[in-house]
Specification:
2 strands, rod-shaped, DNA polymerase, domain 1, mainly alpha
Length: 116
């Protein structure tokens, strides 16, 4: 007697497929999407660009990538040296390089520099 193993393989494959479908749609699994991974330092971006020439240190901290110390250095630099002519001038602030400027540009603006 010659037995064909193909039907039993199809049966096993069908049972496994049904099990996977039932498991994937089990109550509580499909209804709850996985929580997004967030680091403790993740911030929501400000709704409008922050003006580096008028913003307080607290306002600057709302920008992703600017923490308390960097915000304070930006404000101190501005108070000592006058307003920034554009966002690229932030490279003059210790701790801000070209790569940082590129990451920060979408969130920042520099109002027209006013004479003191």
């Amino acid at each position: 007697m010659n037995v064909n193993p193909a039907p039993s393989r199809r049966l096993v494959a069908g049972i496994l497929s049904a099990f996977l479908v039932l498991f994937a749609t089990a109550p509580g699994r499909a209804a709850q999407p996985p929580a997004p991974a967030r680091s403790s330092s993740a911030k929501a971006a400000p709704s409008a660009p922050v003006d580096v020439n008028t913003a307080s240190a607290a306002d600057l901290q709302a920008v992703p990538g600017i923490g308390k110390a960097l915000a304070q250095r930006i404000v101190e630099f501005r108070e000592k040296n006058g307003p920034f002519s554009d966002v690229d001038d932030l490279v003059k602030v210790r701790g801000i390089g070209e790569k940082s400027i590129e990451r920060l540009k979408p969130y920042l603006t520099a109002s027209a520099a006013k004479a003191r």
